[in-house]
Amino acid sequence: ASVSPVDDVLSAAAADEPVFDVASRPGTDEFRAFQIHDCYLVVASEAGLEVIDQHALHERILYEHLRKRILSGGVERQRLLIPETIECSATECVALLESMDLLKEMGFELQEFGGGTILLMSHPTLIPRGNLIRIVKDFAEQLIEQDGKMNRRDLLDHMLHTMSCRAAIKYGQRLTVEEMQELLRQRH
Asked: Does residue 13 have a pLDDT over 50?
């Protein structure tokens, strides 16, 4: 008798092999989803199996949340007790300081410190703290590249994509069962 791939997956799960984690449907013991190679979620549905890129899914969820909050004018900000210092080139400083209103609309409050240094005073609460400097530097690069060639709405959209990508779950990141369930719950 041949063994199906599903049987392989279930036997690997039973053996607690580190290839993936399995999430159960709330309220049941039935296996509904698992993570493969810490990159993809495989979800069982009535129609069969779906393979979902965890980074792309989380990026899209963050993008939609941020976009909705920005359009409604309600981006929650986390004020930093000790501001983050961001070292910039003169061109990056000028680009960021000229776009402070746009950045503030997105939840980033910057302040000029002098000598090629900008202070990050607050950030959107949806963005993990470890990615903030890289996100602001990415914004500076985008502002320099576009240099007025892109309208405000398109620039905002471009920046939202960058922010979402930088803040999203990465490939190779092991998710807990609870994280998988929450990610899958938010996908629709």
From this structure: no
